[in-house]
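Lab channel / #folding
Pinned by the channel admin:
"Please post every new chain as: sequence first, then the C-alpha cells as a reply. Keep commentary short and put observations after the output so the thread stays searchable."

First post following the new format, from NK:
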Amino acid sequence: LEVPPPHVLLPVSGLAGEFAASLYATIRHADALGADMIAITTPPARGDTAAETAIWLAVRDRLDRATRPW
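Reply from TO:
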C-alpha cells in the first residue's frame, strides 16, 4: 500500500503478539515524525487461540482508551 506525502505508512505485524510488541514503537515513531494524526486499522477481536484473542482484546482496549477525548 502506498500513501502520498506527507503521509507515512508504518506497517505493523498481523500476528497478535508481534502487533502488540511493535504497536507502541510504531506510534512513538509516528509521533517523532511530528504526525498531527495517527490512523490505525482496528485489530481483530479474535485470534486462533484463547491467548491470541486475549492479546487482541487487550490491544483493542488500549487503543479504545487512547482515542477517547480527555
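NK: The chain has a mean pLDDT of 84.
TO: also worth noting, Helices lie at 16-32, 50-66.
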